[in-house]
Amino acid sequence: MLLEGKTVIVTGVGAGLGRECAASALREGANVVMAARTQETLDEAAAELDPSGTRVAPVPTDITDADACAALVATAQERFGSVDALIQVAAFEYVFGGLHETRLDDWRKAFETNVLGALTVLRPVAEAMKTGGGGAVVFIGSQSMFKPALPQAGYAASKAALLTAMYYLADELGADNIRCNMVVPSWMWGPPVQMFVEGTAKQKGISADEALHDIVGDFPLARMTEDGEVADVAMFFASDLAKAVTGQHLMVNSGEMMR
Which three-class secondary structure state does DSSP give residue 210? Predict the structure, then answer.
């Protein structure tokens, strides 16, 4: 197992990618500290992923709250003894519309969460990793940084800013043996996208399979990447298999950008 004996913090644990990252980390042998804003969501995920409760710790956390982030890291250290990896999934995605339709407050919230929130949780994580001799930070990006799909310029811009920050963080934190990388997904099959596809199918009067084909039909792999497949790549970056890899981003998109 890639993460045997390690402690991994996963933020944004909900119905999609965050939950799959927690599940993947557990499969790879890690102890997992799960963060999200809602205690009920965390408790449900913890009960499902580790009914014994021995390898998970659910901690309600708003990543824009410095005190909450410090408490999250303290819990990881007290419960499991270290912080070896951070999988930073928590994000604000709901920034839709063009130049004149998008609410500027939504742009601000996207940057506040996706960039400043990521830095806020990273500060205590980096201190804990430095004390422990190093660690791995995995940010989640978005292919929308490179290729417009939905009208989400504000979200894409915030993820692009995080990618740029990642390069500087990799350089700064490398002296403490802390690696920083980014996984860049595109469409991911999971509950949120399934709802989108089914809604699109209903709106167009076609089947869900047809709506899905309209999205992925010309991808080289002719299918949509699953949340869990993106999570598995995040585990690679978190593991010692990537111990000489930092300052990199890897696209997990079923080859979409080749078209």
Answer: helix
Three-class secondary structure of residue 51 per DSSP? coil
Quickly list H helices, the chain: 17-27, 39-49, 66-80, 104-111, 118-132, 153-173, 191-204, 208-216, 227-238
Prediction pTM value: 0.94
Q: Give the residue from 202, 218, 207, 198 showing the smallest Cα distance to 258.
A: 218
How many C-beta atoms surround the C-beta of residue 102 within 10 A?
A: 18
Report the chain's C-alpha Rg in angstroms.
18
Q: Which two tokens stand for residue 32?
A: 């997992």
Q: Which residue from 161, 159, 215 is spatially nearest to 189, judged by alpha carbons?
A: 215
| Helices and strands: H and E segment counts in the chain | 9, 9
Q: What are phi and psi of 70, to 5 degrees?
A: -65, -40
pLDDT in tens, 14-43: 888 999 999 999 999 999 999 999 999 999
Token output for 225: 């990447």
User: Can you tell me the distance from the alpha carbon of 47 to that of 131, in angstroms, rounded to the nearest whole number?
Assistant: 31
